[in-house]
Amino acid sequence: MPTPDSLTTAQHHDFDLEVTSGAWPSDIAGEVIFSAPRFDDALPSGLFGFGCVARLALRPATHGAPADRFAWRVRTIESPGKRLHDLVPDVFTANSVGYQSPFGPPNASNTAPLVWGDRLFSTWDAGRPVELDPATLDYLADVGSIDSWGGPIFGTETMLPTILSSAHPVIDPDRNGMWSTRLRPVLSPSFGMALSVMWWDGEGTEVAVWPLRDIVFGGSTHTVSQTRDWLVLSDSGNFRADPGEMFGGERTVTVEDDAPVWLVRKDQLLATPPGTPVDAICLRVAPPSGHFYARYDDSEGISVIWEGMDLTDLGLSLRPDDLDIHGRPIAPTAARLYNMAMAPSTLMEVHFDPTSGAVTERAVRRDEWAFNLQLSAMDWSVAGQEHPTYHHVDFQGCRPGAVSQRAATLYDGRIDRAQLGEETPGRLVTFRRGSLEVVSAWEYPDTAELISSPTFVPRTRSTDDRSEGGTHAGDTANHPGGHDGYVVQPVLSDSGFRVELFDAAAVGAGPIATLRGTRRECVPLILHSAWQADGAVRRDADRLRFSDEINEARLAGLDDAQRRAVQQVASDLDAQASR
Ligand SMILES: [Fe+2]
């Protein structure tokens, strides 16, 4: 049993959870937002379905849950692309990277929630960030007009643009704006992606984009990280598009053993007219990493926790006819999930010196149990980013039943089959930032279960404190850094989804409380998560409207029915925005 069947067979739906063990603390509030793709039988990869967001309430009797129950509420993101798909589904065709249509590719926006104060966004690597109503989770707007992102990257104007970006933009606390990336395919000096930086100040329909001079590479920029003065970008390396596969061939592209890293000065960007090339400093780090997080305080240099994803190829999907690395048929329910890690994951604390170009590995962990490093939890408060203390990491364990022979053949000579002998427990592990000493760890020996994105939740003033102090729920009263608060750990299981709550200072003591669905409901694959304080409501802002983007060039390739669908979606969204 490599992964729970319910990862792909359960349906996203609303339900309520109850405390089934331990005691739920009173000094926790807000909600955890999860991003997820909806599984779609038409798509060969489960990672490209239309996005939805799930909200887990951290206080009982909120969001429609009765007393002593905790709400789990799911909304599909009703983006323009999703609405067009629902109106004229027959013109949408599936390929290895999602849907294509005469309107262009829809923005799946299924990977990560991004909280910016009282605003909420949803992200995807192959689309613009999308703003959601933090109260209702309704779609509000895509970030930035097509033109301000630089126009169509393949030359043809469409209503739904191809915009290759980052699933993890960052919010700059000093400059109050969003940093992300934009990739543009180029043929010279060789086929690859030219890299630009995107900046948005949170208002209006225009983003600023600066190309980075002479940077062309072959992958993607899944994560954007930052210090006070620097942006840290990297070729994520764990997802590589394979043009041959897109045209129906077998996958031949593999992940690299190391990856380029680029450092760009923020103030240099903001002092340069958009569109003008800016220089970046290029370094290399091994292994590639999907996720890395710089310490915001760069007074002693640039220090980054580097969550290596050694020999994890997110572009390799499992097929129904695949055999696993031991020759056993892949579980039918695992088809369309990605091929899991083929080596233990390396975790590093890396120091970058932008002056000398030196990369120093301050601390390195390559534990043999560290398979499938898959998402982490940290304190995203400004003070927590400046001086992080604890970093909580999920390792899902070795899953040879979800490693295909096809993948093993493609990576022949690069993998150690002896390391993929049997399934091993998942672990939630707390590392001390800097030294990467293991502070504490909790093991999940049931390999039929899968732990998913953990979230750090800062301690909140207790109810008593609030009534005495006159403050409102959501005020944090913790010591920042990641050790003073809670870790919310979802566990995907065929015997019922559960949420385990840990004291962030002592995850090894086990969960202090557990929530389960009152009917032992299951939850399918979920991706990143983020904590949001209570009480956020839609704020007034000048947002992009789908109707703003309609022009004759973008309608030119559409027939009358498709043009009517565009007008219908524009009309519906404008009506929603005016309510
Ligand atoms: Fe990610």
Report a brief summary of the structure:
This protein is mainly β and 579 residues long.
Structure description:
With 579 residues, this protein is mainly β. It has 10 helices and 32 strands. Strand 11 and strand 12 (177-186) form a beta hairpin. Helix 2 (80-87) packs across helix 10. It is globular. The site of fe (ii) ion (FE2) has 8 residues, from strand 19. Residues 111-112, 167-168, 222, 290-291, 528 line the site of fe (ii) ion.
Features:
mainly beta, binds fe (ii) ion, ten-stranded antiparallel β-sheet, 579 residues
Number of helical segments? 10
Number of strands: 32
Q: Mind telling me the C-alpha Rg?
A: 23 Å
The tally of domains stands at 1
Helix content, binned percent: 10-25%
Average pLDDT, all residues: 93
What portion of residues belong to β-strands? 25-35%
What's the topology here?
Elements: H1 6-9, E1 15-22, E2 31-37, E3 51-57, E4 70-76, H2 80-87, E5 93-95, E6 98-100, E7 112-116, E8 119-123, E9 130-132, E10 139-142, H3 146-149, E11 170-172, E12 177-186, E13 192-200, E14 208-217, E15 224-226, E16 230-234, H4 243-246, E17 259-265, H5 266-270, E18 281-285, E19 289-294, E20 302-308, E21 347-353, E22 358-365, E23 373-377, H6 382-386, E24 390-395, H7 405-410, E25 426-432, E26 438-444, E27 450-451, E28 455-458, H8 463-469, E29 485-492, E30 498-503, E31 513-517, E32 529-532, H9 552-555, H10 560-578
The structure holds fe (ii) ion (FE2).
